[in-house]
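From the methods appendix. Each design record in this collection lists the tokenized structure first, followed by the designed amino acid sequence. Records were kept in a plain field format so they could be parsed without special tools. The example shown here is representative of the layout used throughout.

RECORD:
FOLD TOKENS (319 positions):
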């Protein structure tokens, strides 16, 4: 959208992808595709963006406006891919803004801060490779399951002994697969987990320690290990302090807005990659529902739509 006297380009980003979740909301407009649901609120994000477009097109803004409808936030860091492939062309924003719905905040709540809003995330896949064998002859095998179990217990010391307690960090392995039956020693063991931190330096430290511990355990058992760390575009969502203060001052003075200066959350978002390239701000939008993000019954309060369009369009008109 071209401005009448543009001095800069303002970007608004919305993600558009769904999740592999079977919807259980019972709504008349439930997903028509079994096993696919907007359980993270991206349908709300899209609707807000379309509402903003509909509102802002009524009167030509001063500055250029770019609306980015971004795929693959949930899995492939689509924001990073679009940036790297020059999807913006000559319309690369000078400032970037975006939101995410938050179930436990009320309609009327807008929450953000002047530093880090969301954590950076790194996917971790570890595979120990030993030697299978009969359960009655363990001395002739090399048990990958036992090695992986040692690894899981040892990584618990990373957060307690390597991470500055003021900075914090999370290392969670939610998947452990090894062996097929009770009387066969497992030849391989695969673990799938996540690292979440509020700074990129801390993420790199934890990635380093996970790698060192995995290699150390494998060496102590005399087996091989494959280590796959995948961070990609899921960097910490770091708000630009100056732009965040400007946005917070604006919303603080809006009659219908309850502005919350919030703490960071350990959720991840590939908008973090874009904010590492372009200064901007992300914020939470309250949608007042008892079900958490990614829950099959997550159903945002639709009153948040008209509220968001009215308040955010007023903000963008001031830019």
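DESIGN:
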């Amino acid at each position: 959208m071209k401005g009448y006297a543009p001095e800069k380009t303002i970007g608004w980003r919305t993600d558009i992808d769904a999740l592999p979740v079977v919807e259980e909301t019972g709504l008349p407009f439930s997903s028509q595709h079994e096993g696919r649901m907007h359980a993270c609120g991206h349908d709300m994000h899209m609707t807000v963006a379309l509402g903003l477009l509909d509102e802002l097109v009524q009167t030509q803004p001063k500055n250029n406006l770019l609306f980015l409808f971004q795929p693959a936030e949930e899995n492939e860091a689509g924001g990073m891919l679009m940036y790297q492939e020059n999807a913006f062309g000559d319309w690369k924003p000078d400032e970037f803004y975006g939101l995410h719905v938050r179930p436990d905040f009320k309609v009327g709540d807008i929450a953000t801060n002047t530093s880090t809003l969301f954590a950076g995330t790194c996917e971790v896949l570890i595979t120990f490779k030993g030697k299978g064998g009969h359960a009655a002859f363990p001395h002739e095998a090399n048990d990958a399951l036992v090695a992986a179990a040692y690894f899981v217990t040892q990584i618990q010391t990373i957060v307690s002994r390597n991470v500055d307690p003021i900075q914090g960090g999370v290392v969670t392995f939610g998947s452990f697969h090894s062996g097929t039956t009770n009387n066969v020693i497992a030849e391989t063991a695969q673990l799938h987990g996540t690292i979440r931190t509020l700074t990129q330096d801390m993420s790199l430290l934890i990635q380093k320690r996970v790698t060192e511990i995995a290699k150390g355990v494998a060496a102590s058992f005399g087996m091989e290990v494959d280590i796959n760390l995948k961070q990609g575009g899921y960097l910490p969502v770091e708000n630009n302090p100056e732009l965040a203060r400007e946005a917070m001052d604006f919303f603080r003075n809006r009659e219908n807005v309850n502005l919350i200066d919030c703490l960071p959350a350990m959720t991840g978002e590939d908008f973090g990659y874009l904010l590492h390239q372009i200064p901007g701000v992300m914020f939470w939008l309250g949608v007042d529902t008892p079900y958490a993000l990614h829950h099959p019954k997550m159903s945002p309060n639709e009153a948040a739509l008209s509220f968001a369009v009215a308040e955010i369009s007023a903000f963008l008109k001031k830019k």
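APPENDIX NOTE: The chain has two domains: 9-115+239-318, 119-230.
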